[in-house]
Design goal:
The complex is a heterodimer of chains A (572) and B (109). Chain A has 572 residues and is of the alpha/beta class. Chain A has helices at 17-29, 69-79, 86-106, 137-150, 217-224, 283-298, 316-326, 328-338, 392-412, 422-436, 445-459, 466-482, 496-520, 538-541, and strands spanning 3-13, 33-36, 53-55, 120-121, 131-133, 155-158, 161-169, 172-180, 185-196, 229-230, 235-242, 266-268, 305-308, 347-356, 359-360, 373-375, 463-464, 529-530, 544-550, 553-559. Chain B has one helix at residues 36-47; strands at 5-12, 22-29, 34-35, 67-70, 73-76, 81-82, 86-92, 96-100, 103-106. Classes of the chains: A alpha/beta (572), B mainly beta (109).
Amino acid sequence: MEVQRLKTDVVVIGGGGAACRAAIEAAVIGSDVVMLDKGRPGRSGATPCALWSIQAPFGPRGRDERDTPQQFFEDMVKAGHFIGDQNIVEVVAFNACDRILDMERYGVHFKKEDDGRFYQTPMPGQTYPRSCFMIENGQHMSTILAKEVTRHDNIKVYKDFFAYWLLKSRGSVVGVVGIDMINGQIIVINAKSTIVATGGYTSLWGFSDNPPTLTGDGNAMAYRAGADLVDLEFNQYYGTDVIWPPSVRGSVVLYELMIDEFADGEITDKDGVPIINKPLPIRDEAIKTIFNVIKAGRGTPHGGVYFDTTKSPKGEDAVREVFKTMTPKHYQFLIDAAGLDLAKTPLEVAPASHYQCGGIYINEKGQTTINGLYSCGEAAGNFQGANRLAGSALCDTQTTGAAAGGTAARDCAKRDLIPVDQKDLNSAIEMITRITKNKSNKIKPLVVKEGILKIMDECIAPYRNEEGMLKGLSNLQDIKKDLENLYAPDINKYNLELSEAIEAKLMIETAELTFGSALFRKESRGHHNRTDYPVEDDKNWRCHTIVKDKNGKPDYSKRDVIYTLLKPQDVK
Amino acid sequence: MAKNKIQAKILRFDPDKDEKSYFQDYTIETDRSVTIHELLTMIRRDLDGTLAFRTYKCYKGMCQTCVVKLDGVVVKSCATQVMPDTEIRLEPAGGGDVIRDLVVDFKAM
């Protein structure tokens, strides 16, 4: 295998909303930037899967003049059960409007009122309607951001690039190693600043509404490089993802559309009895209700509940119009891929893995606990808290993305490029050759990956307990043995088997840390529900769970949440 | 229970070792209609791990990275169903050089 080396100021790992925004910010400041996209720019990551909703407190420039950044801040802190670090929540809440105006400047189309104000929809947990409406949803946003990236000559983009190893030298992260899938070359990028914007690890679960590429590579890499990870137990599920038929399993349909302003339908049990009251609750509460109904034996044939708009007082045509206007692609996809018309047929839906509130520990500037390493967006961890509001994910990509990109670029001026440690690089390359050169290996990476997904689905669903998680951990140990015998053909171009083999190794790491964090937190809060510790225990657990590598083993500890504008004792 | 079959002819090409592309036949057993994306995943999992195609899913038939040519027509593999008991032909979608098999280095993205 050929090894190619290059040097740059800033390397951004990822290709979604946060990665693009970080790359743009660093480029504007004047850094030379390399951006590494696991797929095709504008088409990969979770951003293209997102719907219309991006939160920003436009107040008089939007739907409700009473809305303010302070109110957004407060809503986010409360929804997160006071586990979000408020220095970072401030960055999100107080910069959201500016970042959305940036997006508009790049060319993203937002729906507007006749007088030019932002059209905004209400979502559960927002004191005032705050979700700006992107016509054509997240796919449009990612395409435009990717286009904006190409306008900067100082950003070089690698497409179909699988990054898998953060390079460490003299205590700092000094870049990244990856495989250019187009030609099979190993590429070593030596950088002054490295930004992990790889998104969440939703696709560690088999039943997920995110793209299968979201395996948490960045989290595992950062952990291996010695960075602190935080709150990995807050795995957000989304309540209503299609569970049947298999061709559209995991496709998201929005329960937020059930309000009377939109489709005015109901989430029901198998007998058609509505189970979620209006006004609609925020996500962690909605999911608990759905789970309890399924657990009580009131679920549909395939283990879900019904998403039913067929009895809406608005009538079929009006409901169809809502879906076509609000989520046009999703609506059409269900018709094309499964012959299902959402306006005419009740769909079987169930909670699926949707977002990671936890991730890499950062500060308000996007710096991690390791010199030279930065993170933003869903890959970063300590600002959502225990639950995330609708419309926050996209907003965070832009606010934290710009913060991390800016800091990474400015820090470049303060440091010299630290050369790559050859021994470290050799280990990275050996990881590949051990898979491709060992002809006695027999096990297919895809099969190992499916094994991991099954364990996660079975043992660390939103409802979890010690017994189940210990069983899951022990099953993971069994799979770990298979990792030594993964087989991938010795093919240069688009060697999916090879990238999946490495992916599986990174996935196991993140999976174990997720189990470990969830076992560590002995309470229930937000999206972490322990049946053996069902109570939210503010006295002992209103804090972060930190995990870091200590001599090859994960070390778990608590860390205080940073409160700035709103202390828990100020509320109630 | 006897299962129905889908017969797929898939155009394969690895520029590193093949002088020209060739069709390979695969037979997949299924009782229900499957999307082309599901079909390709079944082949890769159970029959041939070397078959290359784009595995990205956006869940709304929108990202376009999974497009292939089905019987000469460009379709989204995630949103196009194939019925049991049929024969199909799959080729790369065009729009750029073939990296390998069904994976195209799309010029437009």
